[in-house]
Amino acid sequence: MERKFSNEELEAMDPEDFRSIARRGEWTGFDLNVCRGYAQANLAIVPKDYAFEFLLFCQRNPSPCPVIDVTDPGDPHPKLMAPDADLRTDLPRYRIYQNGELIDELTDVTKYWRDDLVAFLIGCSASFDWSLRAANVQFRLIGAYASNIQCVPAGRFHGPMVISCRVVKNGHDAVRAVQISSRLLKVHGPPVHIGDPAIVGIKDLYHPEFPASSYVAPHREPSEIPIFWGCGVTPQKVALESKLPFMITHSPSHMFVTDRLGEELAFI
Predict the structure, then answer these.
(1) Per DSSP, what are the bridge partners of residue 228?
(2) What do you get for the CA distance between the two ends of the chain, in Å?
(3) Alpha carbon separation from 65 to 6, 49, 60, 125, 136 (Å, rounded)
């Protein structure tokens, strides 16, 4: 049964404790601001028969799909990022795609697990939000959108890049956001676009396809600047576009929390 936790409690949790409450179904909501300082990851699970093609797709599209861990077939434990975790149960919410359609959304995917499945953890930009805050960069995370930027295809994998948006207070904060995120290539790295949303195919900035919270401010202050990063929801759009036979993913904004600090993934 889901419990109520304050924002302060969620931020102060260590990853193991947070994964434990997710496993027990005590937290099924957004987890963008949990476990202060720890890196989060998007999840994509595919059958072994096309795991190489997916790895190639990620290698060709490192901005939306920076791989930080890959499991052995049939093994739900990510050995590099959190060896004691179980990717079947330790996320707040999952999605199941079959033949290019979303067929289920649930909090435990054990019943869908198979011995041939390979799990990919893809770095998440929520990981560098802690670094932005530590540098006093003032920003609002709005959400994510399917863009008009096409990914480089690989085998059966093709489709549009999903991008996330943060609006920063001014030009100074925009420069700092670029500098800070560029050090963190494993969690999407530098932006793919700054400025006019229409250029990347976004018609309404304040109605994202994948909201970052239940409320989005309906306007932008004159000095604010929208900045867009590649997003790990991209594989979900690819699953739909490519009509993949089967894929398990996280539900947007319900990521996996790793045992690694975000700064551990920084490029030095």
Answers:
(1) 165, 193
(2) 43
(3) 31, 19, 9, 11, 27
Lookup: tokens for 10: 């969620």
- Domains: count for the chain: 2
Contact of 109 with 42, CB cutoff 8 Å: no
Which segments of the chain does DSSP mark as H helices, in order? 7-12, 15-23, 51-60, 126-134, 171-182, 234-242
Flag whether pLDDT at 191 surpasses 80.
yes
The Cα 122–Cα 135 span in angstroms is 24
Alpha-carbon 38 to chain mean position: 14
Residue where the block lists tokens 């609006």: 167
pLDDT per position as a tens digit, 40-96 = 999 999 999 999 999 999 999 999 999 999 999 999 999 999 999 999 999 999 999
pTM of the entire predicted model? 0.95
Shared domain check, 146 and 112: no
Q: In this structure, is residue 2 part of a structural domain?
A: no
| 225 inside domain | yes
Closest CA to 59 of 104, 118, 101, 122: 122
Query: 162 vs 27, 147, 183, CA distance in Å?
Result: 26, 6, 21
Domain extent at residue 50: 7-125+243-265
Which domain CATH number covers 94? 3.40.1640.10
- The pair of structure tokens assigned to 222 is 């004159």
> What confidence tens digit (pLDDT) does each residue in 206-254 have?
899 998 865 566 677 778 999 999 999 999 999 999 999 999 999 999 9
